Amino acid sequence: MAINLASKYANKLDERFTLGSVTEKFAGKAFDWDGVKSLKVYSAEPVTMGDYNRAGGSRFGTAEELGDAVQVMTMSRDRAFTFTIDAGNAAEQLNVKHCNRQLKSSWDEVVIPEIDIYRLDKWANGAGLGCAGADALTKDNAVTAIMTANAAMSNARVPRRGRALFIGESAYISCKLASELMSVDTLGAQSVKNGVVGFIDGAAVVPVPDSYMPQGVSFILKHAGATADPQKLKTLRAHKNPPGLDGDLGECRIMYDSFVLDSKVCGVYVYATEGVAAPVITVTDGSAAITCAADGAEIVYTTDGTNPKTSSSAKTYSSAVTVDSGTVIRAYARLDGAVNSAVAEAAAE
Question: Which terminal CB of the chain, N or C, has fewer other CB atoms within 10 Å?
């Protein structure tokens, strides 16, 4: 009887390549759980400086209780998968499908990329800073664009330490070919660790597959502390011969989400060749007019200084808004199928 040696001894299952998470190292984890699906982030309000008084009882000024702002967020993603491996099928396939191994493989091949893609989309659309309708990155402008993004963050007083540049693989080629970096091996100067391949202008560079990036987005510059990226449960379970099945049953469940923090919205910058440009706020004689260059875009604004992308006080703009002196107006524009604009801000005098 003829024996197909290639079939009989090819007992290793051909599995897909896995990349590992490209976002986990710089995901935000500074939050408290408030129930099964909700989390809280506390932000202390800034103090007010005054002159020291060398006489009297209250020399440092009048002491007031330090206030804080609380952002409550609720996870919306509750995801799962399951599969069976019938004992008969497993025996005929020389038992190459082991339930535990297939659970881990499915986690690497399916779950991790889904979370990465979701996070990058949330970060891009929740960004407080950015440039939409920008020129495609080339070796001549890539470094300038990245340094401009870094400067915008620094001007918003975002710490330099902890920044990461998530850049599509195609755009990353332009960075590697940039004349500013050709003579200094800034990229690739260290072994790849947690997806980081080097540094540009102090930011860790993390190339990601083009398919992971939102439509039209070339790069996202992010501070690790600017977001809350919770995960919960992370159940991977293998059942041996459960009722009704002669074989194995694999189950996976994970709850996760991603939020840009209101008080740190300027800790995310998005550079996009497509998307909605930030609106323009013009304040004249106690009236604020908000315009956007994108046809059909909806403008959302607040007049209490809160983040219009998440605030419960946000309103849709339709006509000029009456504002008092000192009022802070913040606004962004959104359009179906396009990346949200950055947040514009103006103060009424």
Answer: N
